[in-house]
Amino acid sequence: MKVPAMLAPATAALSRLGQSLWLDNITRDLLDHGTLQHYIDTMSVTGLTSNPTIFDKAIASSTAYDAEIRDRHSAGESDETLFFHLAIADLRRAADLFATVYAARCGVDGFVSLEVSPQLAHDTDATIAQAKSLHASAARANLYMKIPGTAEGIPAIAECIFAGVPVNVTLLFSVSQYRAAADAWLNGLERRVSAGLAPDTASVASLFVSRWDVAVADRTSAPLRNTLGIAIAGQVYRAYRETLESDRFQRLQNFGARAQRLLFASTGTKDPAASDTLYVGALAAPNTINTLPEGTLQAFAAHGYTPATMRHAAGEADAMVARHVAAGIDIDALGAQLQEEGARSFVASWQSLLAAIARKRQQAA
Q1: CA-to-CA dists, residue 172 to 149, 341, 351, 364, angstroms
Q2: Which of 34, 227, 265, 322 could crosslink 206 through cysteines, CB 3.0-4.6 Å?
Q3: Count of Cβ atoms closer than 10 Å to residue 292 Cβ
Q4: C-beta separation of 56 from 352 below 8 A
Q5: d(CA 163, CA 184)
C-alpha cells in the first residue's frame, strides 16, 4: 500500500487559507527527476509559471534539451519555433501532472503558463495571433497564455479572453495597471455573453512585488526598506476585492463567470539581509495565488509560519505608500517605469535564450 506523502505544515496552512501555491520555475530536470511531482505531493503546489528568463536558464545551463535540439535541427525551423516546441513539450508534461488538481477544483486551479514572445509586448495583433496559435498547439485546457499588461497588451487580453484563450496577465505593478487588466478581462467576458457564449474563460492577473523594493532600496531610509512592494500589493488586493464585489462582475457571475484571480509574482526575497520568506507570509490571502521561486518554496516549507490574512491590511498599505511618497517616491511614475523595465528585461532574456539555442544548434551541426 502506498504511504501518503507528508505535507509541509506551512504550505498546507496556506492551502487551507485558500491561497494557491504555484512554482515559478520549470526545467526538464524537474520533470525527469520527479521533483515537480514531489512538490505537488508534499508542498501543496497546485500550478506553475514560466517566463523567458526561466527557460533561458533551463536550456542554456543544462544538457537535458540537447538531444531534442539535435534531432530537430535538420527540420529547418527558426530558433523561436524550436524554442516553443521545447517549451510546449515541457509544459504539456507539467499540465498533465496538474490535471487531477484542475479537475478536482473545477478548472479554478492546476494551471501552467507559457509567455508569448516578449518582443511582441507592443504589438497587439501579433500578440493575439501568437497566443491563439500557441494555445491551440499545446492542446491543454489548463495552460495559460501570458500576455503583458502593457497598453498594447490590454486589447490583446480582451480579444483572447473573448476567443476562449485562458490568459495570465503579466508585468503588472500598480493599482492602475491591475484595473486596466481587470477591465480587459471583464470586457472579453461581456463580449462572450453578448455572443451567446459562456463567460468561463479563465484568467489570472500577475502583480510583481519585490521589484518595487529593489527599485527604491537606495532612495529610502532603513525603516522603509522592503516595505513598498507589500504595501502596493495590499492596495491592489483591495482593488481586486472591489472588482469581484462590483455589479459588473456580479452580473457576469450570474451567467457563470469565475474570478480572474490575483497572482503575486516576483516574491523571492532580493535583499540578503531580509527574511527569505518575506513575501510569502505577508501576502497570504484567500482566492489568490503566490508563485514562488524554487528556493523560496523550499524555505517556506522548511521554516515558514502560519500566516494571517491580508484582509484588513489595506489601511496599513495606504499609510506605508504615503510614507514613501513623503520620501520623494513618485508611485505612478515608478510603476510605469517598472513595467517598461520588466518588458525590456524579458526581451533581453528572450534574445539570450534564442542565442543559447543557436549555439546548441551549431554544436549539433
Answers
A1: 6, 12, 22, 39
A2: 265
A3: 29
A4: yes
A5: 13
Q: Reply yes or no on whether 146 is catalytic.
A: yes
Which grid cell is 309? 490574512
- Who's near 154: CB < 8 A, 6+ residues apart? 180, 181, 183, 184
Q: Which of 57, 132, 146, 360 is catalytic?
A: 146
